[in-house]
Design brief:
Shape: rod-shaped
Number of strands: 0
Number of domains: 1
Largest sheet: none
Order of helices and strands: HH
Helix content: over 70%
Strand content: under 5%
Radius of gyration: 21 Å
Structural class: mainly alpha
Length: 56
């Protein structure tokens, strides 16, 4: 990551903007994946609780 930062120091503004956009996209993707994992975990817990409540 430090190498990428050093490489963008002398880069034109367009390249820095592209790098920033890419970092924002990666951060958004990580949040989306994390949300999906947490949501699926809650779905599993709800399904288990429902199954237990129905005596299964």
């Amino acid at each position: 990551m430090i190498q990428m930062m050093m490489a963008t120091i002398g880069a034109p503004a367009a390249a820095r903007g592209l790098q920033r956009r890419r970092e924002q996209y990666v951060a958004m993707l990580r949040k989306a994946v994390g949300f999906a994992i947490v949501t699926s975990g809650f779905a599993v817990l709800a399904a288990q609780a429902l199954r237990h409540a129905l005596g299964g």
